[in-house]
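Complex record, two chains
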Amino acid sequence: MTIGALLFTAGVALLVAIVSGSSSPRCWLAATLAGNVAALTAAVNVLAGGEAWIWRGGFLVGGETLHFRLDCISALFLVLLAVVASAGTVYSREYWTDAAHPRSARAGRVWWSVLIASIALVLLSSNGLHFLIAWELFTVASYFLVTLDRQRREVRAAGWLYLATSHAATLCLFAYFAILAARTGTWDLGPMRDETSLAPLFWLALFGFGVKAGLFPLHIWLPSAHANAPSHVSAIMSGVTIKLGIYGLVRFSGWLPVPGAAGWVIASLGVVSAVLGVAFALGQHDLKRLLAYHSVENIGIIFIGFGFALIAARQDNATWGRLALAGGLLHVWNHGLFKSLLFLGAGSVLHTTGTREMSRLGGLWRSMPWTAGLFALGAVAISGLPPLNGFVSEWLVYLGLFDAVNSQGNAALAAVFAAVLLAVTGALALACFIKVCGIVFLGASRTPAAEKAHEAGCSMTGPMLLLAGACVTIGLAPVLVWPAMARTASIWNPAWSEIAAPASLGVLGRSHVVLTVLAIAGAVVLWKLANKHGLRRSGTWDCGYAAPTARMQYTAGSFANIITQWFTWILHPQRHEGRVMDTFPAQAHFEEHTPETVLETIVRPAGGAVMQLAGAARRMQHGRLQAYLLYLLLGLAAVAAVVLIGGGR
Amino acid sequence: MTSILEFILRLAVWLLLAPALPGIINKVKAWVAGRQGPPMGQLYYDLARLWKKSVVMSTLASPAFIIGPAVAWIAVLVAAMFLPLGPVGGAPGFHGDVLLFIYLLAVARFCTTWAAMETGSAFEGMGSAREVSYAVLSEAALMTAVLSLGVQSGSVTLNEMLATSAGAGAVLLAAGLFTVLLAENSRVPFDDPNTHLELTMIHEAMVLDHSGPPLAVILHGASMKLMLFAVLLAEAVLPLGNMQPLMATFALIGAVLAVTIGVGLVESLLARFAFRRAPLLLTTAFLFCVFALLIAWKGGAA
């Protein structure tokens, strides 16, 4: 089948899914999966063949001819969408059932398919107007998905914050595309790299797409929305929809000229996002909120790669620019894969224990070994450790930075900063995921809910296995994905010709295979030896303490305490503790949580000020006709005064 | 053929010589204190004894309690094999292998701390929290040191980066790397390997529950890691690539011995720092590496 036919099939299948979502779950499942497979095939075809698919419809929609384009850049994101959406579709069958959620399960299915279809439309549209329509549709669809469980107050609050922030961003994008259309005389989009006067528009795009991507400090909506959405929705939001912000920036910085400072700004924002994202994550005790902050971190890593690519493009330096861009783009895939894996794992934990509070969990590996193992794999991947995919993309970004340093150009000093802070980010992420895994899955169960947990069913572990398999594949055979990244880089900047995979990438892949084989062999040998010499079970040796209880274990807060102390200047953790006064204190309590600093200290006060102004202005409007007539009279008098005084000219 | 022989030689050096280093440190400490001290080969006896013992495992722990130390040991060994050993050379490196080297050490950290969290003991929670927190600073220092070597040699391959000398910033780099060595290997002033106050330890607190062969693997891995940092420090400072093979071998052995004795002397003459001050010392190490980087930078530009 040709690419057009495949995409048409995908579109029809998704339409069928939207229609059948409320009446026939099976039909919906089959149609959504079919649509995703068709879209995946088309996208892989484009990435492998490199030939872009362009189609112009013969009819008008909203006064503009339809113009679709599937080139490498959109195909890269379409692949991710298809994979993550398929996993989420299957997962939701067991996670958000009609029986457990009679009010929202039907609506959830319909909006899910609308979301997939509208994201695909965003990726395909090559017309500003249609792009905006699809963009708005996907924002609204994700709003309804976030608030599926809208009986709960915090869900409604999260949904409202998401909707408001998204629309502030969409407003910028409206301005962006409208000004673009006014300057060029058409809504049609395509390469226009020579029109240097369009460069300043980039800042509008940076705000609009940056909010969607969750770039620090524009990420205020992200933690609460990702934490409160149903987990399969969190997975696709974190895995795919925030990547649309990246897509927008990559797409339009490739087509339009960008200002000279763009690369520097993007790279600095990336560094800030990476370090502060993981710092905020360390301060969280809510499993899903913690994962949400890691999205801010990983978006930062992607932006570091992308920012240095922009700098390299400016300086016409293909060698390290290509590496940085390829690393950033590969991290888009990788983060999409392991983050949705982690969110699905968190969903399974939430599903069986009913809590996201890490300090109420513990010891879950016994009752849910599959979920624990797959979550651990995701944790290794997101910490950027070999031999998994997270390391491959970070390695490419690092290599770009190191080569930039060694080239001794004017980007070198910035690259040193970025490389060191990337290392810090990696070490912090490792600390954070040891904390998550240790508190949630290891040790003793802290509550009866955690005690009674049970393993998730096949339709929940199956999708996680698929995502984990993808993580392992990219980690062990990175050369397989290199052509797609190199081709996309050459579409982004036609001056950077597509080159074969660097030899070192192949060696890295082989080293990963060797490491994996050796690690498995070592583990098996030691396990066998331990069993051969006799393996006895006994209570934990708590240094002689006779009656340790589950509550004496280290908690999420105590584990992260050393690091969160370093970051109190931005985290502003709030503590509530009862002071111990008596010699034999009867009770004591301690509570700590880390609020969203940007939201609490900047956005909320600003919003309060606007509301106060509006409230003051509202006093003038009270419905008394006489007063309104007085306003008119005063207004006329003021105009007359202006004319009389200033009218001399 | 020679490459296979070289490979076996390097493997043998890492596996067999590494446990001698803690023995040397203990001898130095004993000598300063005027004691006789344990024999140099004490760790070898300990390893042999532990290897034959049975294992007691916490009722809470999963199989990863035993798998973790195994994977950590493999990760350190693979990282060590990437390091060149003077004239013997290293693994056929590749562009960017130095990053794999650093991240393999992170893999080892992930596995050790994971295994510690398995037991649900507050002491081991403390140990792993400290381990992962201080590693943030030492990783920053290590990355800066590597960047300065990269600027000095113009390469991103370990073999080439370590062949030349660290140039004018060598002293600063050595000071920075030595401090990182002390922190990463849980030596005084960051941690006291002799202490038996569980509340004050890092590495020892993490392995309280391990016994038998897994403990042997942990101890051997720790000694390999110590040697790895000692060799890294020696090769970063000395221009081994420009020396005669025999000369280079002696220089390397001498430098590693000097570092080891240095660790022993620090341990004898210095008390352990309060935990609050440990991050400050690591920040100092990081700054040493930053200045080494700046010197390499200026040298490169001139």
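Note: The longest helix of chain A spans residues 318-353.
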